[in-house]
Design goal:
single chain, alpha+beta, six-stranded antiparallel beta sheet
């Protein structure tokens, strides 16, 4: 199957579109292998910490600092007390972390050191920000509660996608919807860790050693939007570039075709010029023998002439004397102006040929003896009356004419031979005359 020029010009565009689409698909898949951005939440030297325990409200559980700077404390619980005992530590970040949203993460790593007999620990994360929708409330709270088996604290605790952790003993519950708000007001963050009731009596040591959260370098929607925009822009650029190249190619092709058209016209004109040069005599403008042969191939393909085709052989009288006495330049002027006079007195259908030297031939079809004699006399008289100027001299020229009229189916060579004999007689009869060939009544026209 052949491919057209238009189709072949579209192949690079299709290739670029396919490549850009493939790159876009790879970029979409690449999002899942992008490196993560790690943010260390704890330890943080700019936090405020305090302990909370039920002994302050009539309970039997109290808390003491072991090392406040390293978030290490101990809970001392006794039997009895209130129905819902509590003991824990609260870490307040204030507005120093207003630019961070720790509640939205892909993965969280917790390092908790615990020594005690309680079954579970609990980690809570709260984000406070001013209320927007309801003026009755001064602030809103969103957060997450993470329940951890005490037995899991011996290893790094990993939380993924809001509670879907690798550790079976870790569960997470959102305290309220974790909405992505666009509120630019500063928010505050609190993190607390405590014992999950029922609290086992005795002394229990708790240290929140570190919290690290991991997120993608870019949000998924931002990444996919960027990929889509880049893919669309690149394709538009490819198409625009293709259109520009096509327009430029069309313009170049148009210019090339125009140049070829002009070149073709020049070749035609040059061909016609050389054809004219090959078929005409450069000096006189009359047909030469090659040109006459081409004419004869159309006029008489088999070489046989129709009846009443007349032939004149015209010869300039004493032309050698002009060349010898005045030079060849004068001879050329005489030939050229004599040929012009003869040509002016012929008809459009006549064929005027320079046969050689100072000899010319005039072939006329549909011309019997009487019109041929009248035409020959007209030409002879016009040449005789013409005065040719060469430099400061005037040259008078006469011609001798042999005339023959073809018989039916007579070939050109036979007619030419008869007419040439008539010219020979005209030369011997004193020149400047017309002699009709044999096989016709001989007629002679002489000047007075």
């Amino acid at each position: 199957m052949q491919i057209t020029t238009t189709q072949s010009s579209l192949i690079p565009l299709y290739r670029q579109l396919m490549i850009s689409t493939l790159i876009a698909l790879l970029a979409v898949v690449a999002y899942f292998i992008l490196p993560e951005r790690a943010t260390q939440v704890l330890p943080d030297p700019h936090t405020e910490t305090h302990l909370f325990f039920d002994n302050q409200n009539g309970g039997s559980t109290r808390a003491e600092w072991v090392d406040k700077d390293s978030y290490s404390f101990k809970c001392i619980a006794a039997n009895g007390g209130i129905a819902a005992p509590y003991c824990g530590m609260n870490i307040h970040f204030g507005q120093a972390s207003a630019s961070e949203n720790y509640l939205h993460y892909q993965r969280m790593e917790l390092k908790i050191n615990y020594r005690g007999d309680n079954q579970r620990l609990r980690l809570k994360m709260y984000s406070f920000r001013p209320a927007q929708m309801n003026e009755k409330f001064r602030e809103t709270m969103t957060g997450q509660e993470i329940s951890i088996l005490a037995s899991e604290t011996s290893q790094l605790i990993v939380m993924e996608n809001y509670g879907l952790g690798r550790n079976e003993g870790v569960t997470a519950t959102p305290l309220s919807p974790l909405e992505n708000t666009t509120n630019n007001a500063p928010n505050t963050l609190d993190i607390s860790i405590d014992l999950v009731p029922p609290i086992t009596p005795g002394e229990q040591l708790i240290q929140l050693e570190s919290i690290v959260i991991y997120n993608a370098l870019l949000p998924a929607d931002t990444w996919y939007l960027a990929v889509a925009v880049l893919w669309l822009v690149s394709n538009l650029l490819f198409i625009a570039r293709h259109l520009i190249l096509q327009e430029r190619r069309i313009r170049n092709d148009s210019q090339r075709l125009s140049s070829l058209a002009h070149y073709s016209e020049d070749l035609i004109q040059e061909s016609q010029h050389y054809k004219l040069l090959s078929s005409t005599d450069a000096l006189t403008g009359a047909l030469n023998r090659n040109g006459f042969a081409a004419e004869m191939s159309q006029f008489a393909p088999d070489g046989r002439l129709s009846a009443n085709t007349s032939l004149m052989i015209i010869d300039l009288d004493n032309f050698k004397r002009i060349n010898d006495s005045r030079g060849h330049d004068a001879g050329d002027v005489v030939l050229r102006e004599t040929a012009q006079i003869i040509h002016k007195n012929t008809r459009a259908t006549d064929r005027f040929i320079r046969w050689g030297g100072e000899e010319f031939v005039l072939l006329s079809d549909n011309t019997n003896t009487q019109p041929a004699l009248l035409l020959a006399e007209k030409i002879r008289a016009a040449v005789e009356l013409n005065c040719i100027k060469f430099h400061d001299e005037e040259i008078t020229v006469t011609i001798s004419i042999g005339l023959g009229v073809a018989r039916a189916q007579e070939n050109f060579d036979a007619l030419f031979n008869r007419t040439d004999q008539a010219l020979y007689k005209a030369k011997h009869m004193g020149r400047n005359c017309i002699v009709l060939s044999e096989n016709h009544t001989q007629e002679k026209s002489q000047t007075d």
